[in-house]
């Protein structure tokens, strides 16, 4: 007798029915301290919630401000999701478990009408045009926002030219002021700077922001003139958006979320909806994200470096003043005076991070046996820069001696709260002595940076420069222009 088949059929049907009606994933809500620009991930997070049961509730902050909150103690959040954890690493060696989720480099989004001059540009080119008043941009506040801090790090690292992370000695002189001259507006965070750019797009030329933000702006329909993405060729600060576990009790839900976010389908969704680059190299990028980003710059490893950059940011917009005390005795004839004229022409017309900038007053004190001329140029635009470029072109030399310390004494009477740069190729043989100068100025109101070349006395120059808090740069075997650049921005 054959066994009944009905139970087998029923069991198979029950199995199929059970598979079709499997229980949904366990629902878990996680609170997340998140960078402000991640508000654009809401559609992706809805898919995450549907597929994994993990509901990420984002509480937005600027990356720098959020990192500071995390460093001083618990914020009560289960996770953190910031543009980078490198700022947090400055505050604490004990970083939470992290998973990189997506990538976006910091770029300059430039209006098409201005972009031609900046295609293939470096940060030095951007800074030079900003210093001349030819590029006005918006950027986020680096005291709050990761994108704003990344901008300062990018510019300062490129200016240092070491190819390594910034060290304290790389930021003793302020190389940011030319770049910051172009800052037309700020905003608390990376998301807010984009909104502000939309409002003020007719007043400015560019925005310094993440690549994703610039591409999203172009796709938004809010711009009257599209932005071209400029990837500075001397280096990019890349954000990798780590998802960090703060509450160990939520490890299982964290793992589910992190694994889903790294899956190929999620990586494609993030890329298509937010224009951030996928972490997975196997995920084919959209056409707009195939542009090479070049060299990634290192994040500083010490808090004092960041503090110096923020101090420079706080000084932006202050009227700078520098007094150049320039030897025009006959010993300067030939290559020496030619080098001096070339240096001033270059710093007026180009000069990268070190060029003369709008808002700066440059005072020229020419001397030989006495002060020959004092001329102040307040830079308000291109015409003033051109005037400064040619200010020394026809200046005559004098054979009545070299009164170095009398000329420096004159400079100190007009320097105000600025800086003095002394350039000489000879020894003092007229006017007051170095001892007389130091006796007159026991508490110097400004630092003197002396550039030595030719037969100038290195010991005496060094003694006076150090007494004022400055130092000597030796240009006897190198370029006078490079020597001037070395001390530009020193305070």
UniProtKB/TrEMBL annotation:
<feature type="domain" description="VWFA">
    <location>
        <begin position="319"/>
        <end position="485"/>
    </location>
</feature>
<keyword id="KW-0732">Signal</keyword>
<dbReference type="InterPro" id="IPR036465">
    <property type="entry name" value="vWFA_dom_sf"/>
</dbReference>
<protein>
    <submittedName>
        <fullName>Substrate-binding domain-containing protein</fullName>
    </submittedName>
</protein>
<dbReference type="Pfam" id="PF00092">
    <property type="entry name" value="VWA"/>
</dbReference>
<feature type="signal peptide">
    <location>
        <begin position="1"/>
        <end position="18"/>
    </location>
</feature>
<dbReference type="InterPro" id="IPR002035">
    <property type="entry name" value="VWF_A"/>
</dbReference>
<dbReference type="Pfam" id="PF13531">
    <property type="entry name" value="SBP_bac_11"/>
</dbReference>
């Amino acid at each position: 007798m054959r066994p009944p088949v009905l139970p087998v059929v029923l069991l198979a049907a029950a199995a199929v029915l059970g598979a079709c009606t499997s229980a949904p994933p366990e629902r878990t809500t996680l609170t997340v301290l998140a960078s402000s620009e991640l508000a654009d991930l809401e559609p992706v997070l809805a898919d995450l919630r549907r597929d994994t049961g993990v509901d990420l509730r984002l509480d937005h902050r600027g990356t720098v401000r959020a990192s500071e909150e995390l460093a001083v103690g618990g914020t009560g959040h289960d996770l953190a999701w910031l543009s980078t954890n490198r700022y947090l690493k400055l505050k604490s060696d004990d970083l939470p478990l992290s998973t990189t989720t997506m990538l976006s480099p910091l770029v300059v989004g430039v209006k098409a009408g201005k972009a031609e001059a900046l295609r293939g540009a470096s940060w030095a080119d951007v800074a030079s045009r900003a210093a001349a008043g030819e590029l006005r941009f918006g950027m986020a506040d680096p005291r709050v926002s990761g994108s704003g801090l990344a901008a300062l790090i990018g510019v300062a690292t490129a200016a240092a030219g070491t190819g390594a992370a910034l060290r304290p000695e790389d930021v003793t002189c302020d190389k940011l002021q030319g770049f910051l001259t172009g800052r037309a507006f700020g905003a608390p965070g990376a998301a807010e700077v984009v909104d502000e750019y939309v409002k003020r797009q007719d007043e400015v030329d560019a925005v310094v922001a993440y690549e994703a933000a610039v591409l999203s702006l172009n796709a938004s329909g809010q711009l009257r003139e599209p932005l071209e993405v400029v990837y500075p060729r001397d280096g990019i600060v890349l954000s990798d958006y780590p998802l960090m576990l703060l509450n160990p009790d939520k490890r299982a839900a964290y793992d589910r979320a992190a694994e889903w976010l790294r899956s190929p389908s999620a990586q494609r969704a993030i890329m298509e909806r937010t224009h951030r680059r996928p972490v997975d190299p196997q995920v084919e990028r959209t056409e707009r994200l195939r542009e090479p980003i070049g060299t990634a710059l290192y994040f500083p490893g010490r808090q004092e470096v960041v503090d110096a950059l923020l101090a420079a940011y706080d000084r932006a917009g202050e009227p700078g003043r520098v007094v150049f005390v320039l030897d025009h005795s006959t010993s300067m004839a030939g290559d020496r005076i030619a080098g001096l004229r070339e240096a001033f022409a270059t710093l007026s017309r180009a000069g990268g991070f070190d060029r003369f900038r709008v808002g700066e007053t440059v005072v020229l004190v020419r001397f030989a046996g006495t002060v020959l001329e004092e001329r102040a140029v307040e830079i308000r635009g291109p015409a003033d820069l051109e005037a400064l470029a040619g200010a020394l072109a026809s200046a005559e030399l004098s054979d009545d001696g070299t009164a170095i310390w009398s000329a420096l004494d004159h400079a100190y009477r007009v320097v105000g709260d600025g800086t003095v740069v002394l350039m000489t190729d000879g020894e003092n043989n007229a006017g007051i002595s170095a001892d007389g100068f130091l006796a007159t100025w026991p508490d110097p109101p400004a630092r003197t940076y002396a550039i030595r070349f030719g037969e100038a006395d290195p010991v005496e120059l060094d003694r006076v420069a150090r007494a004022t808090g400055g130092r000597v740069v030796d240009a006897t075997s190198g370029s006078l222009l490079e020597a001037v650049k070395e001390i530009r921005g020193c305070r």
